[in-house]
Amino acid sequence: MANKKEEVKTEEVKNKNTHEVVIKIDGEAWTKALDKAFEKKQKTAKVDGFRTGKVPRAIYEKHFGKESLFIDAADSVLQEAYEKAMEESKLIPVVQPAVDLKSLDESGVEFTFKIITKPSVNVKKYKGLNIKPEKAEVTDEEVEHEMGHLLEKYTELVTKEGKIENGDVAIIDFEGFKDGVAFDGGKGENYSLEIGSNTFIPGFEEQMIGMTTGEEKDLHLTFPEDYTAEDLAGKEVVFKVKVNEIKTKQARELDEDFFEDLGMEGVNDEKTLKEEIKKSILAQKEMDVENAYVDKILEEVSKNVEVDIPEEMVNEEVDRLLGRFEEQMKMQGISLDLYYQFTKSTEKDLRDQLEKEAYSNVLYRLMLEEITTLEKIEVTEEEADKEAEELAKKYQMEKEKFLAQFGGLDLIKYDMEVRRTVDKLKELNK
Prior knowledge:
By secondary structure, the protein is an alpha+beta fold. The chain is built from 13 helices and eleven strands. Among the domains are: 113 residues, Trigger factor ribosome-binding domain (Alpha-Beta Plaits), CATH 3.30.70; 95 residues, Chitinase A, domain 3 (Roll). The longest helix has 33 residues.
């Protein structure tokens, strides 16, 4: 590539952390990119008088124009241009650089890479803040409350005679009709419905109270105006319901059968159960107290930080939080589109909600990185490698596979440095 020509130009724009790096590729490199683009286009080009894949270059360009090759050629040299921008500018981006096509013609292509670098951070005070953690304590009332939850969890359902009451579980067949025609999603057989759970539309469960096993009834109802299915929203419907069975909740006793069902090692009576519940509550409270303590320190330190955070860093963190939220919704069987329908919101609304958390995350990250430097906190390769081995063992994975999923040894090292810095902050602010 002796005739290859690349021009590198770096400019600061907006602020000292935003740079525009201009890369131009022409000469032999561009000629080869155009040749490659033609070879790709030639495979599918159709011109009368020529077989597909056999159209000569001159005929192709006359028929489709040279410009038809430019975009494919530019795509083929984009990665090379990006690598050149990084190499020549010596800049280290903190977010994925944006790229614009500045110019494109027969002589070459010119890209503009917008590179955001890490802003300077001035942590004016992070020692001697005199912040104390709260003490985690468990009351008898909390233990009794948790015992009630546990007994409720292991409650048994038993068949009952008589009429349906609030709190009962009715096993029903049902089908919904609008204007005498059954509608989609309105039918179920042997469905277990807890009366009073508000699972179905308003009025459905209330109108079932007093029904008996084997009874059939038409429930005249109206769908809410804000119901997600537009064809049913605000519409009057009739549900034909048949009660197949009625079950009622039977409270459990702290007897031998209950402890056997519970299956907790060493727990065989009320005393040992309360002790185990207290330990569990205390462990969770200690974790919550510790997290709140760290959050309080970070919040206090952040009040004494001077930094101009580029909006691109915040936007990228919003993207990450949005992705995490989407995964959480998927685990509940809800897509983002469905979530927007339920909440009558948009992606912009959700991004706006996440922006404050995203800004704090970025601020804390930059702040902790600066304190790591100030306190000369370092993690060796050997320490990071040992941590990777222990984590891989914990998750029952091969170390190489674990590192590939985690993001590599550098991320292990970074994570350890951050944790050590947080521990140092706790030590410095007691």
